[in-house]
């Protein structure tokens, strides 16, 4: 146990910091889910990041990364959020599919997909959910039928984040006639492939943040299948482990938010309810506890451990802390809580938007009810 | 940066776990409650023999000279069995204070002796009657007495294994030890009680899990019902996010700065909140059985209540975290920052 950074880690932090200071856009970009322009501006930012070799620092060098360890990744993320750098438009690619590709992909697949993912040249969407397969993902009905060296894809995917403007999707498909967890494969397809139709769906904040995808005889090479045929469920669960357990939500994100909340409190404490200070303190505690938990997980993984069902506790913790934190801000703002960022009296932080965003946390990446089931059954051993 | 425990540390806590699992079973609790006692001399002897009481004592005072991380792991195992004997206060707080003030004290020479401690933050002294000596405070100075040199008035606690006393004493009968580090005593007590709380919490969950697998209603084990599962899963989430805070607090306590104090307070708050959540979930999952004296869960609830409010109330600890937030830089690069780095 040594909770101090080595000189190398400190030097790395300084390097990240100075690069970001020189490159992070001075004005915030338009949100990537709001318009095509916002999306493309974020793609440009990804290219800038890649020009400094910061696309995905943990990946092997030969696939567009820097070959760094998870502690360095955490340091990078801390500096990234500290600098107020743009959101990662390719998060489904770099944080979810990327680590899965590294674990299950062939060398040729990694060469083909990872460098362009790291550079933002190809931006990815996750196409798992279907109208009849949400929490019960094993109920997926979309099919992949082998035809020589190709697959023919058919089906209806929904809630696919960023699919409106993205280039590629990784979807979950089954062999016709197969049931439940068997016979599924993870297959990549271009979102502009002949036979693929993408319809935007507005989120409650008005952004076209997700989409439904109709696939009609979409032909893709078998090369686009990750892992063995029928191994799709197993691979999806590994992806979900990365998503919940480590990468989807950086602790730094909440530590920055907790700091902004403390600033908001300081500015308003003469007029706000004094009892709210306890919530401000709690928000900091939660963000710090999450950071400590992730540092511990990173250390464990570096010592050879694997992510297990405890990843489900993370997902519950960060989604709940986010709601508590943003709701505390609304309580401090009082009658100004409802103002949108267009209002003349709006403050620098768009707390209402952050709050609305936070409310999705307990739903996506596997609902919190499902996570509690997983904890109860796989961590505690309660009967199904 | 490495947030993992060493093999030696894991071995030590394994030893403690085995010892407590054998010597502090539900049978032992029952017998002690029937007899109305709070100390089992045989068990304490085996704790002493294993060296658990010597962990934090410096080698000059006959100890092993290990650190807070090591002792916190032992405290956590002690919490898992709701250990009646005052291992935390005696070996984790009072004996190290005495060793710092009077390394040659004869009270340290007898390894089986327990030492009780009065602290400005607590109105009562726990386990003063069975202690070989009591450390008392007056104006920042520490004094040493034996129980027969003072008047002890029992203040019965809801916890059958906690003996609380008001102490009336006269300086004329006490040995002065000089200025003591009451802040260090407070931080250590808060930290080790946090670790103890983690153990209490996990045991409450585990007792409920065992029961929920066995107990059948509507033709199925109650543990197959989601309402039951979700109570226990939520308690487990609280435990998982208290653990790393306790570990970090133990690793950083020696820094003795505003961040280290806030971390200890954070640990105490969340570990005992987890213990409370777990104990109440456990009672609920046990139904009326959980409300009976017969089932052991109440021991974990009662110790949780006691430890939550001693060695700093929740508001005291929250205030220490507020001080850290409002006087030191915050943000993602500050997780492990020290006070002097920010000055
Ligand atoms: C903002 C956002 C972004 C998303 N992005 C993507 C994406 O990029 N790609 C993608 O594939 N999907 C995405 N999703 C979809 C997400 O994964 C699903 O919404 C989620 O899995 C839940 O499925 P559902 O919406 O069909 O709800 P349902 O499964 O119908 O659940 C409805 C409610 O019932 C509860 N419930 C269901 N089953 C159980 C059970 N067994 N026990 C207890 N409670 C239960 C749920 O917890 C929930 O509260 C996104 C969703 C949101 C909100």
UniProtKB/TrEMBL annotation, chain A:
GO molecular function, one term: flavin adenine dinucleotide binding
Domain of life: Bacteria
Keyword Flavoprotein: yes
Obligatory cofactor(s): FAD
Occurrences of domain Acyl-CoA dehydrogenase/oxidase N-terminal (ranges): 6-121
Record-annotated Acyl-CoA dehydrogenase/oxidase C-terminal domain positions: 230-380
A Pfam family reported for this protein in Swiss-Prot or TrEMBL: Acyl-CoA_dh_N
UniProt keyword annotation of Repeat present: no
Alphabetic keyword roster: FAD, Flavoprotein, Oxidoreductase
Domain Acyl-CoA oxidase/dehydrogenase middle per the UniProt entry, residue ranges: 125-218
GO cellular-component term (any): plasma membrane
PANTHER family named in the record: ACYL-COA DEHYDROGENASE (PTHR43292), ACYL-COA DEHYDROGENASE FADE29 (PTHR43292:SF3)
Family recorded in the similarity comment: Belongs to the acyl-CoA dehydrogenase family.
Protein's name in the database: Alkylation response protein AidB-like acyl-CoA dehydrogenase
Source organism of the structure: Sphingobium vermicomposti
Higher taxonomy: Bacteria, Pseudomonadati, Pseudomonadota, Alphaproteobacteria, Sphingomonadales
Automatic annotation (TrEMBL), chain B:
Cofactor: FAD
Keyword field contains Chaperone: no
Domain Acyl-CoA dehydrogenase/oxidase N-terminal: 6-85
Cross-referenced InterPro entries: AcylCo_DH-like_C (IPR036250), AcylCo_DH/oxidase_C (IPR009075), AcylCoA_DH/ox_N (IPR013786), AcylCoA_DH/ox_N_sf (IPR037069), AcylCoA_DH/oxidase_NM_dom_sf (IPR009100)
GO MF term set: acyl-CoA dehydrogenase activity; flavin adenine dinucleotide binding
Domain Acyl-CoA dehydrogenase/oxidase C-terminal: from-to ranges: 186-325
Family: Belongs to the acyl-CoA dehydrogenase family.
Name of the featured protein: Alkylation response protein AidB-like acyl-CoA dehydrogenase
Organism of this sequence: Sphingobium vermicomposti
Taxonomy of the source species: Bacteria, Pseudomonadati, Pseudomonadota, Alphaproteobacteria, Sphingomonadales
